[in-house]
Automatic annotation (TrEMBL):
This is TonB-dependent receptor domain-containing protein. Residues 1-25 form the signal peptide. Pfam families: Plug, TonB_dep_Rec_b-barrel. The lineage of its organism: Bacteria, Pseudomonadati, Pseudomonadota, Alphaproteobacteria, Kordiimonadales. It is a multi-pass membrane protein. The keyword Phosphoprotein does not apply. Residues 233-662 form the TonB-dependent receptor-like beta-barrel domain. InterPro entries: Beta-barrel_TonB, Beta-barrel_TonB_sf, Plug_dom, Plug_dom_sf, TonB-dep_rcpt-like, TonB_haem/Hb_rcpt. Belongs to the TonB-dependent receptor family. PANTHER family: HEME_HEMOPEXIN UTILIZATION PROTEIN C (PTHR30069:SF41), TONB-DEPENDENT OUTER MEMBRANE RECEPTOR (PTHR30069). Coiled coil: none annotated.
């Protein structure tokens, strides 16, 4: 259902970028990045009236990624919090984090959320492409798409096979110095002679240790990771294609219960288990009215933590079951107007169970046993129109969601709904220029963790043996966070600008959002008399905590992306700035980040079957804080890389060399005092055989 493709005009899909220079020159201006997640249809990313970034398989390979955050270094407006440990990585888009960002793997929702664990239980080497849609996306994706959507597609056999090839294998091994990480992987793939059946199976293993930081210190970490993918599709008839896949992830780690930041607390043996099962179908007969896609899935994610100093074992288990169904009907309104009408439904059910072997009933405080059911109906129109004053692309859409939450074994429950409209339009007055504007409303339904929060929040010591606990209490009146966003942007796209076969694309936008009913934690300190008067009836406690709707906020910012490609070089740059303020108090809100400029330069050397490049990130001083102690200094990081992919007798060999953070900068990227990894030399050797 979710695909990322490149359209190549008049070229064989098997042409290598490391062939002869003239062949490379043909490909640069004719490759167009296609976005699917922005509209649920294949649309040229440049023309979409939204801020969309596509990360291709080729770009991923060059990054030598060890974690998901490594894949998105060039994407403006997207940052990752949590610190250097991969198990704590959580995304933030335009200052919105947590439940405000939708994460999809092959269209499957990733609903696992906790206070200290990450959201990306996936191996980067198993990905075929990724897309980031920034800005409110609730008109298509419902709850959670306030900040945006991160959609990833796993590898297909088609990603690794060229025309005329039937099957193959790929072997990889690599090492990274900063965490002493070894990586090995093996993949087999193939298709039948008639092309109707194809499949891929892959396994990847990683083992890493303590992380060397940019300030010369070492962060305790110990990961053993195994990841697998089995995926197949079958063209049953000319109109019907079926697909099925399993993706698994296992991580055994030694780290603190809160593995985020540079925290070194009490170490625990942490076990992450994630399995995603997916069935898909695509029915596309010879009809303009039917282009039907459906996906059914089960995603299971569990994190167990074994305290190394005690016998306590705690766990969080989240299971998501769901399906999506959508159809496209296409119409021609005369010779110069075309309409694509996309409509469908989505249902998913999240169930959470917490466990603690030290409690009388085995339940875990702060992790309520609960279930959430969400049903959504959506529709969207895409109108393409050629007029004497230019080409127009207009996209109105709306979605209705009903969501219910219930605490298992209790009578507490909630039942609400939301409607999310959106209108966006692009105008291309001349061939190389586009202007766009959009308005959209989005929402984030309160999670069952927020609604049904229970048990002890924290304790205050009052003496050698006396503790005053503060307790979470549920709030079934909690309302969804809602946003209204305006966005305005422009872009230019030139081919054969300076030399034959080159291309320059630039696109930038300004956005502003009004957010209401912000969900925040309210803590009431009310010590009971039993804390101070011996023998007083009742127990000693220090009040309560609950999640409440409080305040209004304005988020705004600017983003820019630019790429220039030619037969010899590829230059890219991105810039982002985001700001958030509480309308009532003037305080900063959101997970804000410093103004950031990313640049990359790549030199292509087909004469020696190689390319080399560098990436530079410049971040300004971060002073968008209410407490000066939280300010962070500016930083600059420099990466370098070299790729050698020889032809001839060694065709199939690929060697990658790289050094991240070349100058060992002590970058405080996510929080004050939290230092990123230092200089990291990397190497990977791969061999691909096909027949």
């Amino acid at each position: 259902m979710y695909q990322f493709v490149k359209v190549k005009a008049g070229l064989c899909a098997g042409v290598s970028m490391f062939a002869t220079l003239p062949a490379v020159a043909e490909t640069v201006a004719d490759i167009t990045e296609i976005s699917v997640s922005a509209t649920k249809n294949e649309v040229e990313a440049f023309s979409v009236p939204a801020s969309v970034s596509v990360v291709t398989r080729e770009e991923m390979d060059d990054l030598l990624a060890a974690s998901v955050s490594d894949l998105f270094v060039s994407v403006p407006g997207l940052s990752f919090d949590g610190g250097p440990r991969r198990t704590g990585e959580t995304p933030t888009i335009r200052g919105v984090a947590g439940e405000g960002v939708v994460v999809l793997f092959d269209g499957v929702r990733q609903s696992f959320l906790s206070g200290h664990d990450g959201r990306f239980f996936i191996e980067p080497d198993l990905l075929g492409a990724a897309e980031v849609v920034r800005g409110g996306g609730s008109s298509l994706y419902g709850s959670g798409a306030v900040g945006g959507v991160i959609s990833m597609r796993t590898l297909d056999a088609a990603d690794l096979l060229s025309d005329g090839e039937r099957a193959g294998y790929r072997l990889k091994a690599g090492f990274q110095v900063a965490s002493n990480e070894w990586m090995t992987g093996a993949t087999v793939f193939g298709q039948s002679a008639d092309g109707r059946l194809d499949g891929i199976a892959s396994l990847t293993f990683r083992q890493s240790g303590d992380i060397g930081l940019g300030d010369g210190t070492t962060l305790s970490a110990d990961d053993e990771i195994g990841s697998g993918l089995v995926k197949a599709s079958y063209q049953a008839t000319d109109a019907l294609r079926l697909s099925a896949s399993w993706m698994g992830y296992r991580n055994d780690a030694i780290e603190p219960n809160n593995g985020q930041g540079n925290n070194e607390g009490d170490l625990m043996a942490k076990r992450v288990v994630s399995d995603t099962f997916r069935l898909g179908t695509h029915f596309n007969p010879e009809s303009q009215l039917i282009d039907l896609q459906a996906v059914a899935y089960i995603n299971k994610a569990r994190v167990d933590e074994d305290d190394l100093d005690t016998d306590r074992i705690i766990g969080r288990d989240v299971e998501t079951k769901g399906f999506t169904l959508d159809n496209r009907s296409r119409f021609a309104l005369g010779r110069k107007a075309n309409v694509t009408f996309t409509y469908g439904a989505e249902y998913y059910r999240d169930e959470q169970v917490g466990s603690d072997n030290m409690t009388a009933d085995g339940t875990r405080g702060g992790v309520p046993d609960a279930v959430a059911n969400t049903t959504g109906l959506f529709s969207q129109v895409e109108l393409s129109l050629d007029t004497p004053v230019g080409a127009f692309y207009v996209v109105p859409g709306v979605r209705y969601d009903s969501f219910k939450n219930k605490a298992l074994g209790e009578t507490l429950e909630t039942d609400e709904s939301a409607t999310s409209p959106k209108f966006a339009a692009t105008w291309e007055p001349i061939e190389n220029l586009m202007l766009f504007a959009s308005y959209g409303e989005a929402f984030r339904a309160p999670s069952f963790n927020e609604i049904f929060a229970d048990d002890v929040h924290f304790t205050i010591p009052l003496g050698p043996t006396l503790q005053a606990p503060n307790f979470f209490i549920p709030n079934t009146d909690l309302r969804p966070e809602r946003s209204k966003t305006w966005e305005f942007g422009a872009g230019v796209d030139f081919a054969d600008l300076f030399t034959g076969g080159d291309r320059l694309t630039m696109k930038g936008s300004y956005f502003t959002s009004d957010v209401t009913d912000l969900i925040d934690l309210e803590v009431n300190f009310e010590f009971s008399m039993a804390c101070f008067v011996p023998g007083f009836p009742g127990t000693c406690n220090a009040g309560t905590s609950r999640n409440v709707n409080t305040g209004r906020a304005t988020m705004d910012g600017f983003e820019l992306e630019a790429v220039y490609s030619s037969p010899r070089v590829r230059l890219a740059a991105s810039y982002s700035s985001v700001n958030g303020r509480d309308k009532d108090t003037g305080d900063y809100v959101g997970i804000l980040s410093p103004n950031r400029l990313f640049t990359s330069a790549e030199l292509k050397l087909p004469e020696i079957d190689a390319k080399l490049g560098t990436r530079v990130t410049l971040a300004g001083r971060f002073d968008k804080v209410d407490d000066v102690a939280e300010e962070r200094p500016a930083y600059e990081t420099v990466d370098v890389f070299l790729v050698w992919q020889p032809q001839g007798g060694l065709d199939g060999l690929r060697i990658d060399l790289g050094v991240d953070n070349l100058f060992d900068t002590a970058a405080e990227r996510v929080f004050a005092g939290v230092v990123d990894a230092g200089r990291n030399a990397k190497v990977r050797v791969g061999w691909t055989g096909k027949f």
